[in-house]
Amino acid sequence: MSTTRKALVLQGGGALGAYQAGVIDGLGAGGVAIDWVLGTSIGAINAALYAGNEPARRGPRLREFWRRVAVQSLPLPFGPTPATTRWQRTQALLSSMVLGVPNFFGPRAGARWWDWSQDVPTTEASFYTTQPLRETLCELIDFDYLNSKAVRFSATAVNVETAELVTFDNTEREIDVRHVLASGALPPGFPAVAIDGRLYWDGGVYSNTPLDLLLSDRERTDTLCFVVDLWQQRAAAPRTINAVFSRQKDIQYGTRSREQIELHRRTQNLRRAIRHLIDRVPSELRDPAEFEALSMLGCSSVIHIVNLGLRSDPAEDQNKDVDFDAASLARRSAQGRADATEILTAAPWNRPLRPTIGLAVHTLGDADT
Fold it and tell me: Which residue, 254, 360, 239, is CA-closest to 309?
């Protein structure tokens, strides 16, 4: 595995991103050094905290970010019961909606809350300002180190005017705080970010999992890729209106990665099969021109996709992505660390594959697929 590229793909999902921080902590404890980190929205923030800090500072800086954005709920008046826990979460949500989240976002002054037809600059057409997040990121991310390319960094955003998905990559341009903010500028809560005369919104508006960037990369090399999902792909049918809204978000933001994986699995397996067949063609039967064309289609590399996913608490509802309650963040982070430790212990990517398999998918508790 020493020559295999290690990649980490991080979805968007607001407060659910604490799970990603736990996964990163667990991977680091297991000795996994990531070569390329790709993120959207909160995933881009976690990615920038990883790529924008030297190895010894990554864990502390990630933990510090999530400590700063945690909302301390009022104490439970009668102890933890289902009713009091719901009350506590509701209180934390209302606090975040009215007051914002510390060191992340705050309410924008003016009439935007009730006059939605008010004419304002696009960079101010939002309910909240993310100036606190800008200050937090500038303090916790070393952009000089990020731009040293010690770790490749990629974040996605959407061009507001053309609806084009764009990638901010430190191998192609100088990255600064605007690019990270743009990837997390989810409307109408957060404002568009202007970069070089163009306006950008959250990449999750278009595609919430930037896995396609890695799978479409021109460099075909053996890759171990950890994909960290924040939205449940499988869940029981909802039986309340709150559960309907929650499940809608899961489907809207979480299922595209499965489509991407399946598409690229077929393509990569075909490339691998072509290479396998080419290697078995006797030299006397090889036409130079045809053989060269076939060689371009073939590929000998193997990609392992390791899928880790946050499991929602049964008491959570459609507002789970804005639940910055300190206890909720701690629970998600602990789950992420435990899941990373478990998958590293199992290491299913070390099992032998058939020679025609070019892309394998591994999930916790499941057989290879």
Answer: 254
Coil, strand, or helix at residue 264? Answer: helix
Amino acid identity at 38: L
d(CA 113, CA 257): 34
Comparing CA positions, the residue from 29, 5, 9, 19 lying closest to residue 345 is 29
Amino acid (1-letter code) at residue 305: I
Residue 41 region, left (φ>0) first, then alpha (ψ -120 to 50), else beta? Answer: left
**Cα–Cα–Cα angle for 61, 62, 65, nearest 5°?**
85
Angle at 175 between CA 169 and CA 179, to 5 degrees: 85
Give CB contacts under 8 A, 24+ apart, made by 361-366.
361/261, 361/265, 361/305, 361/307, 362/304, 362/305, 362/306, 362/307, 363/306, 363/307, 363/308, 363/309, 364/308, 364/309, 364/339
Count Cβ atoms below 10 Å from residue 179 Cβ, excluding itself: 25
pLDDT digits 0-9 by tens, 49-76: 999 999 999 999 999 999 999 988 766 6
Rounded CA separation 178/195 (Å):
7
Q: Which has the closest alpha carbon to 357: 267, 291, 286, 284?
A: 267
Q: What is the DSSP letter of 76?
A: P
Q: H helices within the chain, ranges in order?
A: 18-29, 42-51, 55-68, 82-99, 131-140, 143-146, 177-183, 211-215, 241-254, 256-278, 288-297, 326-346
Instruction: Give dist(CA 60, CA 86) in Å, integer.
Output: 31
Sign of CA dihedral 149, 151, 152, 156: negative
Residues 6+ apart with CB under 8 A from 142: 52, 53, 54, 57
Closest of 318, 310, 164 to residue 238, by C-alpha: 318
Phi (first) and psi of residue 318, to 5 degrees? -65, -10
Q: State pLDDT tens for residues 140-186.
A: 999 999 999 999 999 999 999 999 999 999 999 999 999 999 999 99
